[in-house]
Every structure is written in structure tokens, then in C-alpha cells.
Amino acid sequence: MTNYPISPYFKRINRKMPYSKPLFRLAGPVQKLLLRCIPLDQALTANQLLLAGFQSLPIPATLFSPKSGSGLLPCLLLFHGGGFGYRAAPYHKKLAMLYARETGCKVLFPDYHLLPSYSYPAAKEDALCCYRFLASSGSQFGIDPHRILVAGDSAGAVLATYVVGADWKELPPPKGQMLLYPVLDAAQNTDSIRRYQDTPMWNSKNNAKMWNWYLDGTSPLEHQAASPMTAPLPSKIPPTYLETAEFDCLHDEGLLYAQRLKQYGGYVTLYETKGTIHGYDFCLNSPITQQSIRHRIHFLKKTL
């Protein structure tokens, strides 16, 4: 593996992440157990929900709510990353709770359908169903349907863009989107894709496998709709926060997507982190991660 000048704060994750279908199946139960071991933040309550998703299959979801909140509260719909194959990691749950505590909003954290059993459009349909639930029935859970923001890291960011790009007709559209080191371009034809073939945590080789498996059996039209870089944009683009990692094969497509949103009239806050690798949120207590979290919290408070 190339010796990249990565910040020493991320030494503990300076390694390749295995990415294979057998491992998805093996890791799933372990990841589920690890999530259960993360204690609930004492400032929050948590409701376990079952939502109807792709082909009416159930989507387990956790709704985190601030104990101090009253009336209808804004809500963050948060999709975890994991290359469409891995479940949420403990740091994803910790971040979901942190966002709820620090912003005073509710956070819906769904466990959407994954590879290898479910390829496109399963996760997309799950994401749309989650938003539809919040916008149409969320008031029953103390959620203001006019103040919903979608967010995701890595592959989870793709799902956030699907929600923003959908035609919600009679339902209020998302208030904004927060995309963290996002997966955005199935074409995979940027300088960073070519440059970072062996970077820690994620690289262009894993990225190619991910898109091949995720889009398996899709038509050219579905392929275009599945890739945020080529999918249609909404007539009105909501405020966007986009964060990139420096030594990440996805870095350049993040910049290009930010440019695309701006060209179509969107307001974009772009934050390019330095010394970072994909998934650097894993090291939650590092100064670099903490600074990024402050930027995110500021955007969420301002937008919601």
C-alpha cells in the first residue's frame, strides 16, 4: 500500500477494508450486536420503528428524540455508509445521537436493505419510503414535515440525493441535504479514482466492485438514474453541505457534484478536509473530525 501523508490521527484506520459478498453476510450479525452495545445518550429517547420499504419489506429504524424538545421538531433522515453491503458501524449510531443532542432535532436512522441480497433499486426505494413516512405521518411522532433534512456518508449519501431528486408532489420537499465523502458517480472517471487505487478504508478497486454489484441487472436508463452525477436534479435544489476526504478515490466527484449543483442554482457549502481518508469519522475524537462535526452542526442548525 502506498505511504500517503495521512494525518497521524487516523493511524488506527490506516488499513484496507475488505469488501466481499461473503463478508457482508458474516459481518451483518456482528455489526448488529455492536450497535446494540452502544448505550443511548442520556439526553435522548429512542423509539424502534418498522417502516414499509422496498416491495413492502420491513425497514427497522430508530427514531432518536431530544428529551428537552417540545412541539413539532425538525428531523434529520440519516443514511449510514458501508458500500451498500455493510450495516451501520458504532460510530454511525454515535453520530446520529450527537446530531440529535446538539441540534435539538429528531433523527431517523434506518437499517435499509443491502447487498448481496438486495441490489438497485432496493435501497433507493427504502430511502424514499422513509422520507414519505416522515413527510406524511411524522407529525404523529412530533416531527415537523416542513423541516426534514436528509444526510448520509459514502453510499448513504447516494440515498440522500435520491430523496432530494424525487418528485414529492403533495408532500413538502427536503429542507436540505448533507453529503459526507459521498459516492456520486457510476462512471468513475476522475483523477482521484485513477490516483487512489490502494488508499486505506476505501479505494477505486472496491468502488468499482460496489457499482458493479449495486447496478447488477439494471438497464441503461436505470444506470443513469442510480448515479447522482447523471440523475435528474429537482427544479429547486435545497441548501447542500458537501464534505470531502483528501486521500479518497471519491474526492473529485464530490467537487464535480458541488459544481453541478451550483450550475443549476443550488447553494452549496463545500468543506474539503485535509489529511483525511474515507470514513475518517471512525476516529470521532480526533481534532480533525471534531472540526468537521462543528461545521455539520452549524449547517444543520442554520438550515433546519
Automatic annotation (TrEMBL):
SUPFAM superfamilies found in the cross-reference section: alpha/beta-Hydrolases
Keyword Hydrolase found: yes
Keywords associated with the record: Hydrolase
Gene3D superfamilies recorded: alpha/beta hydrolase (3.40.50.1820)
Origin: domain of life: Bacteria
Active site positions, chain numbering: S154
Domain Alpha/beta hydrolase fold-3 residues, every copy: 76-280
Pfam families the record matches: Abhydrolase_3
Signal sequence, start to end: none
InterPro entries found in the cross-reference section: AB_hydrolase_3, AB_hydrolase_fold, GDXG_lipolytic_enzyme, Lipase_GDXG_put_SER_AS
GO molecular function: hydrolase activity
Family in the record: Belongs to the 'GDXG' lipolytic enzyme family.
Protein name, as recorded: Alpha/beta hydrolase
